[in-house]
Amino acid sequence: MDRYSRIIALLKVVLPLAAVALLSTLFLISRQVETRPVIPFAQVDIDDRLRGQQVTAPFFTGTTEAGHEITIAAAKAFPSSDLGTASATDLEAEIRTTEGRSILLLSDSGALQPDTNSATLTGNVRILTTDGTRIETETLEAELSGSEARSPGSITATGPIGDFTAGSMRIFTKSKNAPVHIEFTNGVKLVYDPAKAER
């Protein structure tokens, strides 16, 4: 046998043995697979939840006596020191009237009293209506069963007819099937903008 044939015969034996040796080391050296399930929460979130009771992204919906729909949502809600009260952060409430209009209420924080069917929105309260009115105040007290809310403090607003301020504001219905009204009182000052009114 010549030299070339001997090398080929030797490689036919050595190469498959080397391949088997490489494959066996792959299985022996491979990393161990993590079989414990990973919880999709950061340790900070877990610590916060263990420190105090809270509900993340609570959602409440209902209908008033007049048939208007009310939806309330928050980033977090937790029991307050006052019995029967829940505190919440990043509150968002929407009133959809039977006439098809919408009033959106937003605030940084608030308190819900389910037993009295009321809520108090505090901190950077914004009220947005479908006709383009934007109202800002610091506190808004709402009665959830009757589509009624009032701002005990001053408000600033901008709307289709211009910019205005007032000492207080009230959202209400005159009777069970009446439309929702927004009333401004206590020193209302309006800067009328004809350009806005013509749009």
Describe the structure.
The chain has 199 residues and is α+β, with helices and mostly antiparallel strands. The protein has one domain (53-198): lipopolysaccharide transport protein A fold, CATH 2.60.450.10. It is built from three helices and 14 strands. The protein has helices at residues 3-29, 43-51, 194-198; strands at residues 55-56, 59-63, 69-73, 76-79, 86-96, 102-113, 118-129, 134-143, 148-151, 155-159, 162-166, 168-173, 180-185, 189-192. Strands 1, 2, 3, 4, 5, 6, 7, 8, 9, 10, 11, 12, 13 and 14 form a 14-stranded antiparallel beta sheet that branches. A hairpin with a 5-residue loop joins strand 5 (86-96) and strand 6. The longest helix has 27 residues, at 3-29.
